[in-house]
């Protein structure tokens, strides 16, 4: 019996057949449907919070992130994921309307503290904006806000003029019957 086991061991060591996985040195090929750490495409995210609402474990929280797109995501709210609570079900990915949240094949999540496995927007985000792009986006958002205020002021002015015109029309119509009565 012992000789049989030694024979098997010797045969495996000489043949080059891999018996155990050499995990840290050699990572195995993962299937395409692997559910690993989330990846957030910052440029697509609109901050709707659908991922946070659908999460059954409540591990996704929408937090403010200043380096986002103020034109697309006016509140600058992006997901933060607590991998200590995540069960990698993929519901958040399926429910994302702009299709900006994906699951990667990266599966190594480790840390010394609980806070080490809570990934913020900067940890899961890809396609980050440069400082120049952020300043251009901020300028674009400011111009859009000014245009919105200008249009609101014009609408209020037009409404006021229409109300004044209607008042003048009512006053003129009430004076005509008084002249006929005389």
TrEMBL record:
Domain 4Fe-4S ferredoxin-type: 36-65, 77-106
Protein name listed in UniProt: NADH-quinone oxidoreductase subunit I
Keyword Translocase in record: no
Region (Disordered): 137-182
Superkingdom in the source lineage: Archaea
Keywords: 4Fe-4S, Iron, Iron-sulfur, Metal-binding, Repeat
Residue ranges crossing the lipid bilayer per the database entry: none
PANTHER family: FORMATE HYDROGENLYASE SUBUNIT 6-RELATED (PTHR10849:SF35), NADH DEHYDROGENASE UBIQUINONE IRON-SULFUR PROTEIN 8, MITOCHONDRIAL (PTHR10849)
Biased composition (Basic and acidic residues): 139-157
The keyword Oxidoreductase is assigned to this record: no
Source organism (scientific name): Candidatus Methanocrinis natronophilus
Pfam family, one: Fer4_7
Cross-referenced InterPro entries: 4Fe4S_Fe-S-bd (IPR017896), 4Fe4S_Fe_S_CS (IPR017900), NADH_quinone_OxRdtase_chainI (IPR010226)
């Amino acid at each position: 019996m012992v000789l049989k086991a030694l024979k098997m061991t010797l045969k495996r060591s000489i043949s080059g057949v891999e018996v155990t996985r050499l995990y840290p040195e050699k990572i195995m090929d993962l299937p395409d449907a692997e559910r690993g750490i989330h990846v957030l495409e910052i440029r697509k995210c609109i901050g709707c919070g659908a991922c946070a609402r659908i999460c059954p474990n409540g591990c996704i929280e929408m937090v403010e992130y200043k380096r986002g797109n103020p034109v697309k995501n006016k509140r600058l709210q992006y997901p933060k994921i607590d991998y200590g609570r995540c069960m990698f079900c993929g519901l958040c990915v399926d429910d994302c309307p702009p299709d900006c949240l994906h699951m990667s094949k990266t599966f190594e999540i480790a840390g010394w503290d609980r806070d080490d496995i809570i990934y913020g927007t900067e940890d899961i985000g890809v396609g980050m904006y440069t400082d120049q792009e952020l300043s251009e986006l901020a300028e674009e958002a400011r111009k859009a806000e000014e245009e919105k205020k200008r249009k609101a002021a014009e609408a209020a002015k037009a409404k006021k003029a229409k109300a004044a015109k209607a008042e003048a029309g009512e006053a003129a119509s009430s004076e005509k019957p008084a002249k006929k009565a005389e």
